[in-house]
């Protein structure tokens, strides 16, 4: 019986959460968009749809990160670099520098020369 009550409480909390987010989205939209961009005002159901669209395009659906978090790429990159020999690492850095350079001088172009 406790499990059913817990499930009903979670469902009610989820519905309340969606309703509050829809209301907040609608109020913020109707406060900002018409004044700033001369856009239309939206209704409550449109605000919920807008929130769901934003979640689909830009957001996560909750849950734990389980190693797939924001900086998981950094950990994989460090593992890759640490498994390379110093020569391989230097070649990799040179390739990345060449690939992502946006013009301008090479960062280490004058490293071996002296100005006398």
Mean pLDDT: 82
How many β-strand runs?
0
Termini separation (Å)? 87 Å
- pLDDT < 50 stretches: none
Helical coverage, percent range = 55-70%
User: Total number of helical segments?
Assistant: 4
What oligomeric arrangement do these chains adopt?
A: single chain
The 3D shape can be described as flat
- C-alpha-based Rg, rounded: 26 Å
Beta-strand proportion: under 5%
The sequence of SSEs as H and E is HHHH
Largest sheet: none
The domain count comes to 2
Helix/strand-derived category reads: mainly alpha
Provide structural commentary.
It is a single chain. By secondary structure, the chain is mostly helical. It has two domains: 2-58; 70-101. The chain has helices at 2-37, 44-58, 72-82, 86-100. The protein is flat. The termini are far apart.
Task: Give a brief rundown of this model.
The protein has 116 residues and is an all-alpha fold.
Which helices and strands appear, and what pairs or packs with what?
Elements: H1 2-37, H2 44-58, H3 72-82, H4 86-100
Helix pairs in contact: 1-2
Keywords:
single chain; 116 residues; mainly alpha; 2 domains; flat
């Amino acid at each position: 019986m406790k499990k059913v009550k817990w499930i009903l409480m979670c469902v009610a909390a989820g519905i309340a959460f969606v309703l509050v987010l829809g209301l907040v989205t609608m109020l913020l939209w109707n406060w900002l968009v018409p004044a700033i961009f001369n856009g239309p005002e939206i209704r409550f159901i449109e605000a919920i749809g807008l929130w769901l669209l934003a979640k689909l395009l830009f957001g996560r659906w909750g849950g734990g990160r389980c190693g797939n978090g924001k900086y998981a790429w950094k950990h994989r990159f460090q593992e890759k670099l640490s498994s390379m020999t110093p020569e391989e690492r230097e070649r990799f850095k040179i390739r990345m520098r060449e690939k992502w350079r946006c013009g301008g001088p090479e960062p280490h172009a004058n490293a071996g020369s002296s100005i006398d």
